[in-house]
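Extended Data, panel c. Modelled sequence:
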Amino acid sequence: MTTTAQSPAATAGLPATMRAAILKSQGAMALETLPVPQLDADQVLVQVAAVGVCGSDVHYYEHGRIGPYVVDHPLILGHELSGRIAAVGSAVDPTRVGRRVAVEPQRPCRKCKQCKAGRYNLCPDIEFYATPPVDGAFAEYVTIQSDFAYDIPESVSDEAAALIEPLSVGLWACERADIKPGSRVLIAGAGPIGIIAAQAARAFGATEIYISDIAEDRLAFALQHGATHALNARTDSVEGLDVDAFIDASGAPQAVRSGIKAVAPAGRVILVGLGADDVELPVSYIQNREIWLSGVFRYTNTWPLAIQLVANGKVDLDILVTGRFPLSESEEALKAGKQPGQLKAVVYPGR
């Protein structure tokens, strides 16, 4: 993120420049040398260890925009990251230097109505990594407010620490869905977020976790890692399951419509997947059953729980990593998801 003053003591022994993989224009990446970012008083400088490739990164690469967010100047992608604190601002405890951390990649204003209500993810002035015009983490160093860099135990790998970010999406979806012990849940989409949501639902105590997809290999993987039932979206109907909650991680309009009809009276529908801007919904079904419907926009206050679940073995994120790439191959990492058997690509800026 763009920052201001930096004391000489804060950067002692650090390089003046770093490498970064930059989206120059739609479908065009380049490896460049940039100044190491400067620190605000309340920030830490993180030497990036691992960065997961998110679907939003791929969308920016392929299409140059997501809704109102348009890439109209060179942008560093990547917002799922872990690393080690290399330097601290003047207001930060210097003993934090050297700590391994998982980074929550956003900077809310902390002053607006939404922030003060605890909904800082809805802050109208929030700065979020790799969302234009804010740079992300396909770089050797990044800065973040100290309290958004969370210490991680040595038992948690760099890859898993980076994937705390998508796990936070799954946890936030389960919180919004009011998943509790004994809940019955349907998840559409057995990609990384769907599998993470299934593991999160299991950690929250759900006893029946249905997951649907059109890919049999992904369904088989989901059954091994969180789901209790797998449904082929082409051949198996979900209507009438009467689940307590439906989480859409697919973005497919038909999956959303049929998933809503799988929800029991007073149940919850949570929309996570990126799909069409407008979707036709079964409004009478929603009304007659008083179904509660909500979107998910990132997360708030999820990192402590996420780290605990990973450290305790309740959620396994390492199993999602299917492709590993050095920073110089960031473009290949962005394309990896289209290959058979690929779930999550990870970029390693230090390599």
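Residues 164-176 form the longest helix (13 residues). This feature is highlighted in the accompanying rendering.
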